Amino acid sequence: MHGLPTDSVHEQLHDRRSDETIAEVNRLCDSLRDLKPGTEVPYVDPVHNAGEARVISLFSNTGTAPPSGFIEAGDQEAATRLLGIQWQLGLRPEYVMPWNAHPWFTPGEANGKLTPEQIAAGLKPLLRLLALTPRACTLVAHGTEAHKLAALLLKTQNPLLWRRGYKTYKVRALSGRSSAGSAERQAQWLDEMQHAYADSMARCGLPRRGR
Description:
By secondary structure, the chain is an alpha/beta fold. It has helices at 7-15, 23-35, 76-89, 116-121, 123-132, 144-155, 159-164, 183-204; strands at 55-59, 96-100, 138-142, 167-171. A four-stranded parallel β-sheet has the order 2-1-3-4, with helices on both faces. Helix 2 (23-35) runs antiparallel to helix 5 (123-132). The two termini are 25 Å apart. The model has no long low-confidence stretch (mean pLDDT 91). This is Uracil-DNA glycosylase. It comes from Arthrobacter deserti.
């Protein structure tokens, strides 16, 4: 995930999508696109690292495909909120792996509220992602659709979950109506997100900034 909007930066990132640290994840994205011809499946920014990732950030991608071609937390404000939380904690991008609850987009259309079938379709891709991130031990689910997929994940009782002591956290989505509310409510939601990421870091053995 990134917050740099220029076309040249997007082109540079696209050229680096096969970097060794993220190549397998982006090949997964290619294979998912091939499963549903005519769809878009955003890549993962090469700033992330499959071998080092400890925390999966799972987004409820109800909007349109990001113009950048890479998975994003939502609009620019959403990306800024999440990057701010992670910066305050000292959670570096190589330790985070972003993913979408439903990896596919129809070009030019918003996904809208995901159906139970669409959410269920995201389970196998998520399990494949977890197999490619062997050090990840927590998942932070942003928004209702991500919450539902996280619940499906736990119901699988997949051996890799208990081997890693996997824990999931359910927090608000970062953009749209989910982020609308009074200043006090928004501050509370951000605090809950920060707590989820802080607890994830502690669980995965990552030091926080200033500690």
